[in-house]
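Narrative of accomplishments. A recurring question from our advisory board has been how the design workflow behaves on a single, concrete structure rather than in aggregate. To address it, we present the structure tokens for one chain from the evaluation set, followed by the sequence designed for it. No filtering or post-editing was applied between the two.
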């Protein structure tokens, strides 16, 4: 049963995702590159490989994944000032860490070996949900990079990729639970929740907070229920995009 029959600004029902699209092999230099769109939000996600690891992992034989995120100047109106190296704002740092944690949850870093997967998520157009779109596209880019290179590492790619991961936003707007918020909806939401889950149904992260508002346990349970259904639908889109390359 749907959460509500009320129409949203773009005509969606409360528990509808925006259109989700993955365009694989979008660039030729990085071994994994995906242009992901969720509605108007558009992010270029690439995955590159470095044959070394951070100092804290040297000698362990274990690999690592790290993520960087940026919103390009033309992704918003008015123009967003370009961030300079070493001068990242707190939001950017938070999102980078979230993307890295989310993707590492889907990998067996021991099987990766002493190498680093560098994931770059560059927002081309922002209309809400840039962090969740980044996670969704980056997972596909990581799979493509491992697919391309795993034979030279003498390991099967589905030994490294042990689960899928996807993310979605959920909001409480005028007392109603709405899935996959656009910017117009997000700015008016009383409560905003970002949910990250694996394809096997395990939680990676739940970020929820009220904006001059509070919420009940019942609200939280409704948001998680709607969000989980969204995750299932996004995972199906990831699987469709990867086709026979789906690792499970």
């Amino acid at each position: 049963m749907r959460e509500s029959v009320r129409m949203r600004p773009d005509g969606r029902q409360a528990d509808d995702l925006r259109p989700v699209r993955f365009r694989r092999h979008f660039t030729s230099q990085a071994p994994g590159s995906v242009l992901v769109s969720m509605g108007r939000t558009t992010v270029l996600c690439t995955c590159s490989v470095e044959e070394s690891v951070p100092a804290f992992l040297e000698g362990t034989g274990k690999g690592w994944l790290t993520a960087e995120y940026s919103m390009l100047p033309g992704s918003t109106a008015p123009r967003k000032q370009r961030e300079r190296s070493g001068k990242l704002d707190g939001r950017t740092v938070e999102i980078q860490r979230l993307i890295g944690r989310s993707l590492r949850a889907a990998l067996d870093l021991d099987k990766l070996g002493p190498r680093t997967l560098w994931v770059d998520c560059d927002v081309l157009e922002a209309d809400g949900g840039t962090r969740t779109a980044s996670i969704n596209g980056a997972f596909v880019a990581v799979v493509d990079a491992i697919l391309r290179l795993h034979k030279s590492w003498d390991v099967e790619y589905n030994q490294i990729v042990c689960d899928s991961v996807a993310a979605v936003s959920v909001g409480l707007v005028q007392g109603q639970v709405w899935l996959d918020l656009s910017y117009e909806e997000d700015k008016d939401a009383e409560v905003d929740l970002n949910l990250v889950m694996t394809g096997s149904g395990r939680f990676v992260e739940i970020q929820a907070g009220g904006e001059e508002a509070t919420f009940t346990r019942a609200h939280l349970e409704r948001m998680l229920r709607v969000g989980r259904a969204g995750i299932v639908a996004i995972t199906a889109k990831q699987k469709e995009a990867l086709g026979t390359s789906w690792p499970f």
